Amino acid sequence: MKIYDKLIAKEEKIAVVGLGYVGLPIALEFAKITNVIGFDINPERVAMMKNKIDPSNELISSDFNNCSIEFTHEIDDLKEAKFFIVAVPTPIDQSKEPNIKPLLAASETVGKVLKKGDYVVYESTVYPGCTEEDCIPVLEKLSGLKFVKDFKVGYSPERINPGDKVHTLSSIVKVSSGCDEESSEEIAKTYELVVSAGVHRASSIKVAEAAKIIENTQRDVNIALINELSVIFNRMNINTYEVLEAAGTKWNFLNFRPGLVGGHCIGVDPYYLTHKAKELGYHAQIINSGRAVNDSMGAYVGRIVAKKIIASGTPMQKARVLVMGATFKEDVSDIRNSKVVDVINELKSFSCHVEVVDPHANSNELMEEYGFDLVDEISEIYHSVIVAVNHQEYTLLDENYFSSILSEKGVLVDLKGVFRKKIQKLNYWTL
User: Which of 78, 107, 152, 230 could form a disulfide with 431 if both were Cys (CB 3.0 to 4.6 A apart)?
Assistant: First the structure.
């Protein structure tokens, strides 16, 4: 029997290594069909999941029901698995270079328990070639086994969109690949068990890696163009959203909007591609330029707000600013690589007082990661209110509410343009 048949018959187990935003959903989906081992190096996270609590706040307790899954942080428990899925983060460092240490550490973990006939599938976003050039040598070294002959490896990138309840794991076409024809088919068939939208079989591991990395790179470049246009239009005193509405009446106009570009995907993945390009002796001009534009937007917003406060007659040393939203996007608790931080830091550089609220973010995590926390309640009059993240809770607010917390000449800054058709009297600005 092949690995797919053994998984269906529950004669073998799947192990998911890394139970974050990507790993936990895929582990639970497979656990509805076959036996799964959910592995995470953090004992506290494992304890939460054993109690049907998602540490990432994406899933609810009922999502854990009717699942045949064993959560563990013990490496020895992985020896029971035959099919390994690696779904650990692949961040960038302070120099904006790929940090694959978590990926290599996960490869070491799998390598220690790898057996003849096992499958290893990587889901972490990487540059093309990383699986074969960086990960597989670790598997071989730790296991003493030979790639292809003794064990098979594939790559199937995650495509989950945090906070999106429509485009879920099962409804997004899965891209998969293997190291040979047999593994390619076995891996694809295995994913088809949980992905109703179907599986696209990529011709090679490198093709699958490249397909993933350009998805977010393409979005990043397109958003960068719109962000640059918004800077230009602001100097022309033209509303960017009105321009986009007019241009959008043409059938082939791409519908992108200005904004802060952070998070662990769009704000990170392009750097993996430019890193690999640089290794090959090529400077990726368009991608790097797009990254530079998007990385600058937080500070740009901070400077605009500072200018508007000064123009209203308030010295920055006496100014109070409220920032609403600290996560990297709406309706999630994820603060990784949040560009709202750049707005806050720029305002603080002008010596003004900044307070931050967010119904989804964790105050302790923000303090640990960025050096600021959340205020418990809004009780002051502010010289500017910045709606930085369009959480559902904020989209329900109206002009009367903002008027009640803004000074007479205070400015409402709406980075996503949520309120632009609702504000009539207030001093209002958007990208």
Answer: 230
